[in-house]
Each structure stands twice: as C-alpha cells, then as structure tokens.
Design a protein that fits this description.
The protein is mainly β. About 10% of the residues lie in helices and about 45% in strands. It is built from 4 helices and 48 strands.
Length: about 600
C-alpha cells in the first residue's frame, strides 16, 4: 500500500471511529437514534428495560447501522441561510460519501465542485426532499463522478435551475461514470446539458441506465441564431456511453423547447478497442424501450458498435436530423417506432449540412438489419430512410413500414451508393417516389416483395446519378406511378414477378452495359405500359424481355448482332427455339444452342448462320 493510500485509510478509519462514538452516545440517551435512518420518527425517551429484556438493549433507539447515513442526519442542506441564498455543501457531502457505503440524499443540497464517489459497491439513493443542484461556477462540471466499481445511484433528483452550460471546454452535467458495473436508475435529471455520460477516456463496462427521466434537456448548438456554427456536435445529450456491455432501458428523454441538443440516447464503442482489445471490449449494447421527444439532432444512435440491439424505442417527434442513426456499426438488429416531425424551417446544425431522414445510416456499416416503422408527420420534408453520408461501404437490410403525411414531394428511400443493400417486405405509402439511387460499379441492390403505394405521378425506383452497379427487383408492387423504373447506366438490371399500376411507362432505360431481364411482370391498372429503351436498338448485351402482361417493349436486335458469332445474342442464353425481333420488323428463331447455330426467319424461312 502506498503512503497516500495508507493515509487515506487512516482518515476514513478516524472518521468512522468518531462517528461510532457519537452514535453510541446518542443511542445511550435515546435522542439521536432516529437520525441513523432517513425519515425515521423521533426517538422517545427510553424507559426502564423489562426484566426479561436482553441486557444492554435500549428501548426506543433503533439499531445503529454505521455504514448508512442521510444528509438530514448529517445536517447537510442548502437552505440553512435562506437570506443569503443556497450555501455550498460540497465539503460536508464529499466527506459523507467517503465515510458511508449507503447514503440517502433527503435534503436539498448545493455544491460548487463535483462529488467524487470512490467507495466500491456504494449505494446512493434519493428520498423525500432530496435534490442536488449546482452553484454558479459549475457550468462545465458534473455533479457526481463515479470512480468506484459497482456504484449504484437510485432515485436521486438532480437539477440545473440556472440553466448552466458551456459550448466549449468542460461539460455541465449530472453523472459521469468512470468505473465498471455501475447503475443509474429511477432518477430525475432536470435541465442538464449532459445528464449521464461514460467517457471514452475510461470505457466503462457493464453499465445499466434504467427507468430514468431526462427532462428539459439542454443543448450547446446555436440553433437558428448562427447557421454557420458547428457547435453542438460534441455535447448536449441525455445519455452517452462510450464502452461495452451497456443496457439502456425504460428511460424518457425530453428536450427543452427551443434548444439545439445533440442526442437523446447514444452508445459508442471505444475508439481504440480494435488495437488493444480486452475480453469485454466487443462494444455490445442493448438500447430498448426508451422514449425520446424534442429537438435533439438525433433521438437514438449507435456508433462504432459491434453487436447491438435497438428495439422497442419510440421517437416521439421533434428530432431535427434523424429519429435513429447507425454509424460505423456491425452486427446490429433494429426494430423501433419513429414519428418524424420536423419543419423544413428548423435548421439546427445547418453547418453540418445534414440529410434529414427518419432513419439514417452514416459513414459505413456492415450487417445492420433495420425493421422499424416510420410516420413522416404533416409539415415535414424528409426521407423515410437515407444513407446520409457516402464515406464508406454500407451493407444493410431494410424492412418495416413507412407512411408519409408530410410534403407530397417526399421520397421514401435515399440510397447513396450502398455496397450491399437489401429491401425486403417494406411497405411504403404516400410518397412521391419509392427510392432515389446513386450508383457505382460496386453497388448491389435487391428489392424483394415490397409494396409501394405512391401519391400520384411519381417514379418507383429512380437512378439520379452515377454509372454501373446491379439492381434486382423481384415480387414488388408499385401503384400510382408515372414510371415504375427509371434506371439508366447500370451494369445489370433484373425486374421479375412485379406488379405495376399507372398511366405512364413501365420502365425508362438506357445504357445497360451487361445484362437485362424483364420477365413475368404485369400491369394491373388495365392499360398497357411500355418499356422504353432510349438508345434505339438494344446494346450488344444479354437481355430477355418475355412473359409480361400489359407491357409493350421496343427492344429489338440489329442484323449485325444476329449474324455475328461473337455477339452477346449468340454467346449468352441462346437455346433452340428462342425467338428474337430483328430491326423491329421480323422474328427469327434459333435452331440450336451453340453460337454458330443458324437462325430461321419465321416469315420467309430464310436461314442465317452466324460467323
């Protein structure tokens, strides 16, 4: 044991020895026994012991628990001198938390410096009139700093009535967790900039944040006052945890009206864990059954998490960027309810140029499975889902449902160059467009068994920019479209078993470079819809347009493609009996499977042998 540790042990022993003498003396006269427990009734005057009573027992004095005390017992309160404002209780409260393993806060307490908890397995609880508030110089400090493992904070009320906060430097806040296996539960946090944080400098493991209320949360962003400011993206959260093995459940977070806060609930993996991995640094997180409302830039977010669940959470409206977001994550399951209500006039964090969406994925992600429900509320202009930055690969599966009651121009999905993106069993209604896509040769998008009921004359799937990539559509439904598919310049496109209704085109295509399949689709609106290929004759690729109902195609091969043995027509998917249209005025049938097998003109019976 070091000299400092030995001195600390001696101080604690001395304090406890003094407290023991005081309590023993108080018990002997029966006057202070009630002070050993919060809210106990005053002790009565001791009577003479009954003949059969145990020797040494004092009637009227409860048992003395040396490891338990309350702030009322210690006469710690901030309103002793009301005429002079609240007094500073820091020194007395700090000494008490060092002396007692079980402490009840049952009086109003004010402090001008962080209370540091260093006793392992300590329990601090709130009761009655107990509340902790900061004094004026606490604009960049936390009220409680947890430094000992297995610390439990239960039922405490922490308030920041002067609305202290800082835009730079240290953070005003409620509780900082720099220890493992800590729990914060059933507490109330009022008007905090940073209610609970477990900082990256420690990387807490096994944290539980359960059944708390984070009310009138503050933000450090400048909101509408300065649209060029980048302040507010490093603070302004109800809960932020850097670490692993964390559980957040049953909490409420509400932002104070007019504030530009950052996050309601945020879990982030340790930035250095990949280099120096401990056996518990897998960045696992459970975020379940929480509710968030108000002008946080995002309500639920995970960043750099490997192995996470975000389920049963409700974004109640007001998020100014994203209802939920997943950033640089791997192996994540998501199933939440998002009500996205955000006026286009709200420009919080404008300097960051956020793409606004109910659900966002950012930077890069792998194995993220999202099955949430979304309601875009009236007066809101946003995407239902967006790849909000394109700085890395995204491997994501999206399901669930989306309803648009906001701007009629809203698009359900913005797919910005995803590496692998699967849309499965997604139901969207009321949007102008099902998906807006940007592409490159590495993009692969599959769309399976989805239902899109658009709001009028919009486009189902539209490629906005880029070249290359593969899109496969199978079993989808697109209703009320002007054009179901506007997908130029892809490498590969396949549309199968899909139903469409509308008055315009089934597909508007050009520049398909490798393969095209349009088969077994149907128009269910009773009219005929064309497939238009705007480059004239089809390119020299493998393509099939067949077995469609209500779809008219202008696809046709040229004479050169028919007669060249090296053409894709002869090299790929050629079989005996295959029918093709040549120059849009004659039908030819293949007489064999090989590239050199001849073609027969059904009208003239003329044969052509490719060479």
């Amino acid at each position: 044991m070091s000299i400092n540790e030995k001195a600390s042990e001696e101080r604690i022993h001395s304090r406890r020895k003094a407290l023991t003498k005081i309590l023993a003396s108080a018990a002997a006269i029966g006057t202070l026994g009630s002070l050993t427990r919060a809210n106990a009734a005053p002790a009565s005057t001791p009577s003479a012991p009954a003949p059969d009573s145990v020797a040494g027992k004092i009637n009227g004095a409860p048992g003395i628990i040396l490891d338990h005390a309350s702030t009322s017992w210690a006469k710690i309160r901030n309103d002793i001198h009301r005429s002079n404002g609240p007094v500073d209780n820091y020194a007395a409260l700090q000494q008490l938390v060092e002396d007692k393993k079980y402490l009840t806060i049952d009086t109003p307490v004010s402090i001008n410096k962080s209370i540091t908890l260093t006793v392992k397995n300590q329990i601090i609880e709130g009761r009655g009139n107990g509340i902790i508030t900061p004094l004026a110089n606490m604009g960049n400090e936390f009220l409680l700093v947890l430094k000992a493992d297995a610390t439990q904070i239960h039922g405490i009320v922490l308030d920041n009535p002067m609305l202290l906060k800082s835009e730079t430097g240290g953070r005003q806040g409620g509780i900082m967790i720099s220890a493992n296996y800590c729990e914060v539960s059933n507490c109330y946090f009022y008007r905090m900039l940073q209610s609970v944080i477990a900082p990256a400098s420690f990387g807490a493991y096994g944290t539980k944040i359960t059944n708390n209320w984070f009310l009138e949360c503050l933000g450090a962003g400048t909101g509408m006052r300065d649209l060029h400011s980048k302040l507010g993206e490093d603070r302004g959260d109800a809960v932020t945890i850097w670490g692993s093995g964390t559980i957040m459940t049953g909490n409420h977070a509400y932002c104070k009206a007019g504030e530009d806060a950052r996050l309601a609930f945020h879990a982030e993996g340790l930035p250095g864990a990949r280099k120096h991995v401990r056996d518990f640094d897998h960045k696992d997180i459970i975020m379940a059954n929480n509710m968030a409302k108000g002008s946080f830039r995002r309500h639920f977010a995970m960043e750099n998490i490997n192995g996470g669940i975000s389920i049963g959470n409700i974004s109640m409206g007001g998020a100014t960027w994203w209802g939920e977001a997943y950033i640089q994550c791997k192996n994540i399951n998501v199933k939440n309810t998002i009500r996205y209500s955000n006026s286009p006039d709200i420009l919080n964090g404008n300097a960051w140029r956020p793409i606004k969406a109910a659900i966002a994925v950012v930077n890069f992600n792998e194995g993220v499975n999202i099955d949430s429900t979304v309601l875009i509320a009236k007066g809101t202009k946003a995407y239902g889902f967006a790849i909000a930055t394109q700085t890395g690969d995204h491997d994501v599966t999206l399901s669930g449902s989306m309803i648009n009651e906001g701007a009629r121009t809203n698009t359900a999905l913005y797919l910005n160059q995803p590496k692998r993106f699967r849309i499965n069993n997604l139901d969207t209604r009321g949007f102008a467009r099902a998906a807006l896509i940007t592409s490159n040769p590495d993009v692969f998008i599959s769309s399976n068994n989805n239902y899109h009921e658009l709001n009028g004359q919009g486009i189902g799937l539209e490629m906005a920019r880029g070249k290359g990539g593969t899109i496969n559509v199978n079993g989808d439904t697109y209703l009320n479209v002007s054009t179901a598919f506007k997908l130029p310049n892809l490498d590969n496109l396949s549309i199968k078993n899909t139903q469409v209704s509308g008055e315009g085109r089934f597909a508007n295509l050009s520049g398909i470079s490798r393969s095209l399949t349009i088969s077994d689709n149907s128009v269910i609106s009773g009219n005929e819809m064309p497939v238009a290929y705007s480059n004239g004759s089809s390119p020299d690729i493998a393509w099939t347009v067949q077995n469609n109902i209500g779809i008219r195609s202008n696809f046709t091969y040229s004479s050169d493609q028919l007669t060249s043995e090296k053409s894709q027509l002869n090299q790929r998917n050629k079989y005996a009996g295959k029918n093709v249209s040549v120059n849009n005025n004659s039908v030819w049938v293949a007489l064999g499977n090989n590239p050199e097998a001849p073609w027969l003109n059904l009208a003239t019976q003329k044969q052509v042998k490719p060479a």
